[in-house]
Design goal:
This protein has twelve helices and four strands, in the order αββββααααααααααα. The chain has a four-stranded antiparallel sheet.
Length: 270
C-alpha cells in the first residue's frame, strides 16, 4: 500500500509531462499547417490579419479581421498558389504534341533568311524573264516566221500534187481547182464518182466525218484498190501513208460504163 501511494505522484508527473509535450507538438503541427498574412489580395478584395486554417484541392479556408471565408484556388494568383504550396497547373501540365505545337516548333527551327531566299527564287522563275533565262526558247524573228510560211506552202503544194495524181489515176482530170484550198474537194468528189452535194456535207460538223469515210471507200474503189486500203484511209495514223500509196502506186482504175446505145429497128433495116 505504501509503495502504491509513493508511485501515484510519480505517475501523475509523468502523465503531466507527456500531456505537455503532446500539446506542444500539436501546437507546432498546427502552427506549421497554418499560415498567416498581414494583407492578402484576392481579385478586388483585400483581407487583413489572415490566417490560413484549411487547404483543400479546390478551396482555402481563412480567418481574417472581418470574419472567415472560403477562397477558390482558381481565383488565386500563381505567386499566391506557390506560397500556399499549390503547384502551378501551367508548369505541371506536360506539353501537348498537337499539330499546331509541332508546326510552331518546326518553323522556329527553320532558317528564315534561307526560306525567303527560296521563295524569291521560285517567284522569279515563274516570271516571263525567268522562264526565258531557264529555258532555251528562241525568239520568233521574221526569218524564222518566213521559214515556217515556206514550209507550210511546200507541204500544201505536195498535198495538192498527191491529190492530182490520185484524181488522174482514178481516170478523172482535176483541173486547176485541185490547187485551191477547200475548192479542191470538188475534183476529189468527181474522181470518187460522188455527187457535188457532198461538198456541203464536208462543211457541216458531224456530217463531214460521214462524208469523209464515204469518200475513202469510194476513192479506194475508184483507184482499183480493195477494202483494206479503204480501212487504212479511215484510221488517222495510217491515212497519210495510204494517201501516198494511192498517189504513187500503180493500178487499174475502175472502168466507167458509158450510156448504152439502143438500136431501133426500122423498116429499112429489117
Amino acid at each position: 500500500m505504501k509503495t502504491s501511494k509513493m508511485l501515484k505522484p510519480v505517475v501523475r508527473r509523468l502523465l503531466g509531462i507527456l500531456l505537455t509535450v503532446a500539446g506542444m507538438a500539436a501546437v507546432d503541427v498546427k502552427a506549421s499547417l497554418e499560415q498567416t498574412f498581414s494583407v492578402l489580395q484576392v481579385g478586388t478584395t483585400t483581407y487583413r490579419n489572415v490566417t490560413v486554417t484549411t487547404k483543400e484541392k479546390n478551396y482555402v479556408f481563412i480567418l481574417h479581421s472581418a470574419g472567415m471565408t472560403n477562397l477558390k484556388v482558381a481565383d488565386l494568383t500563381p505567386e499566391l498558389r506557390t506560397k500556399l504550396g499549390y503547384e502551378d497547373p501551367a508548369a505541371a501540365a506536360p506539353p501537348t504534341k498537337t499539330p499546331t505545337a509541332w508546326a510552331k516548333q518546326t518553323l522556329s527551327k527553320l532558317d528564315v533568311p534561307k526560306v525567303k531566299n527560296i521563295e524569291a527564287q521560285v517567284a522569279s522563275l515563274w516570271t516571263p524573264d525567268g522562264i526565258r533565262a531557264k529555258l532555251p526558247l528562241q525568239e520568233i524573228t521574221p526569218k524564222v516566221l518566213w521559214a515556217f510560211v515556206g514550209l507550210a506552202i511546200a507541204a500544201w503544194l505536195f498535198h495538192s500534187y498527191c491529190c492530182l495524181l490520185i484524181c488522174q489515176k482514178a481516170g478523172s482530170e482535176p483541173g486547176p481547182l485541185i490547187w485551191v484550198p477547200l475548192l479542191q474537194l470538188l475534183p476529189l468528189l468527181k474522181a470518187a464518182s460522188m455527187s457535188f452535194w457532198w461538198f456541203v456535207g464536208f462543211l457541216v460538223p458531224g456530217i463531214n466525218l460521214i462524208a469523209q469515210v464515204v469518200w475513202f471507200f469510194k476513192i479506194a474503189q475508184a483507184r482499183g484498190k480493195g477494202l483494206g486500203m479503204a480501212l487504212l484511209l479511215v484510221f488517222p495514223l495510217t491515212c497519210p501513208f495510204a494517201m501516198l500509196y494511192l498517189a504513187f502506186s500503180g493500178g487499174t482504175p475502175r472502168r466507167k460504163e458509158g450510156p448504152r446505145r439502143v438500136q431501133i429497128m426500122t423498116l429499112e433495116t429489117a
